[in-house]
Each structure stands twice: as structure tokens, then as C-alpha cells.
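A quick aside before the break. I want you to see a complete sequence-to-structure record at least once, exactly as it would be stored in a machine-readable document. Don't worry about memorizing anything.
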Amino acid sequence: MRNFCKRLPNSQNLTAPNNPHLRIDIKSLAMKTFTKTRLSSLIISLGLLATSTGAFAHGHESSKPQLGFETQLVSGNVYMLSGVGGFTGGNIGLTIGDDGVAMIDNGLPSVLELLKAEVAKSTDKPIDYLINTHVHGDHIGNNEAYGSGKTHVISHQNLRKTLLEKGISTGGGKSKPAPKDHLPVLTFSDQMTIHINEDDANIKHFAAAHTDGDAVVHFKKANVIHTGDILFNQRFPFIDTNNGGSYQGVINALQSIHDMSDEDTKIIPGHGPLATKADVATTIEMLKGARNLVQKLVDDGMSDEDIIAANPLKPYAEFSWGFIDANRMTKQVLEGLR
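That is the input. The structure line, written in C-alpha cells, reads:
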């Protein structure tokens, strides 16, 4: 632009031939014309940039997984179904074979059709048995949908008792009576076994752990254990003391699961990725370590509020997640110590 202006006549003002009183500032006019041209180009460039950025953003958003499930073959004919693209509930177990199909837990009511579609990718057979690991709605939310058909729902007797006495939570501290089809029709007190698909699926109760009605399913031949919410793999657990759970009970149950396992055992946790015996050991160590850290502050005479503010579980920060962070876990530890 500067070189262009240098080439203009020395006199910046010219007289219009038809109007001697009208004087024109050539350099000013040239500058304005050049500026408008540059501005137009800039606007066009920004428009193209916005368009390409929008296209990139749209492509980026479309690359995010939609809410649904993914299926992982664990061992033998046992599969794990876990949520993708959002929260679908707890991890689901599935055994498929000539004898039929048994499912362990069934997710939230809102994902029923997604669950059915995912199961249909592996089998077109109906669900013969539905095992409930505990009472929470993110694990047994679709009991009624399956129970209204030919599926036999199985649980520990305390789970059925809780549903009959407390009903189904509807949020905000409210509940509604559990429909008949939502209730388990086969219950046990200590343990039972389903002999299916050339395997023995042993269902065992662990008292006062995550709840008072927890069931762990052990496929002996496949060497697979589904723990329900006794194990939250690589994250802090939720311990439902309002439904009979306890801190020490979780540790006791995890120790039993650890002892049931070997180095090749595949463990389906209630939440989190597929686990191993070593993962169970890590969780036990975290629970004991967290309790020791909080116990020390209790012994020093600190109040619960001061203990929480001190963030004693900072060494276990990697276990924090959306539902249970370090503060909430500290409160659970304190409750377990009282």
C-alpha cells in the first residue's frame, strides 16, 4: 500500500473538471478503496474459516460414540456388556450356549432397547435366567421388562425383601411399589448353582457388603467372576449403608473374591474395566490404606469437618470419579469408623 501511495502525484488534491470547488484527496481515496478491498477479503477469509471450523466441530461431535453398549468376550461363552457414550448402568454379564442364555444384571430402564439390540448381535435366543447382583436400579432397572416374559429372575432373598418393603426408588426420596414382574421369582439364602452351557454358575451371597443382598456369580469352568458392586474397579466404591452395606463388609467380600481367584481369573466388576486378581488386591489395599489415614486424624481428635477439609485421601486421588470423589469417600470411611 505504501509503494502504491508513493506513485501518486505530488499534489494529493485534484480539482474535478466539472466542479472547480470540488477537490479530491487521491491518497485518502486510494487508502479507503484499498482498505475496503482488504476488509472484504478478510470477511471472506473469516467466513471460510468459520465454515471449515464448523465442519470440523461437526465432524468432531459426530465422532463421539453414541449412547449404547459394547460386548467383550471374557472367556469361554461368557461375555461382558458395558456402556459407551454415557451411563447405561452397571456392567452386564452374559452366558450363551446350547442350554440357553443367562444374564447378570440389566442396566437402567432408559437403555432397555439399546440393551436388547446389543444382545441380539450375539444371540437371537430369549433370556432364560436373569441374575440380580443387588437392589440398585442401575443394575436391575429392567427386571419387569424381562420378568413379564418367560425369564426367571433370581436374587438373594434380602433383595426381594427390600423391593417388597421399600419399593422402587423414583428419585427425590420417593418410591413406588415394585410391580410383580419386577420381583425375583427364585431366591436363595446362602448360595445356589445354575448348571448351564457346560459350566457351573455358582451364585453366592456376601453379607453386609455393598448392600445386604449382594450376590457374586462364579463361572467355574470359564474362570470368570461377576462381582456386582462389591468391586468398583480402579475407582472409589459406593457403600450403601441405608440398605445394609458396610465398609468392613466390602473388604471381607473382596478378600473372599481374591481368594476365589487365580492369576488367570477374569473379573467383571460392577463398574469399571474388566479386572484381575491383582486389581482386587489393589482395591483392598486402597480401602485399608484410606481407613488408616482417616483413623489417624480421628485419633488426633479432629472433627469430621476438619478431617474432610484436610483431604486425607489425596494419595488415592486416581480413584476419584464422577460419583464418588475423595471428599465423599472420606465421609464413607468416617461412617465405617463410627
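Two observations worth writing down. The radius of gyration is 32 Å. The longest strand covers residues 224-232. We'll return to this after the break.
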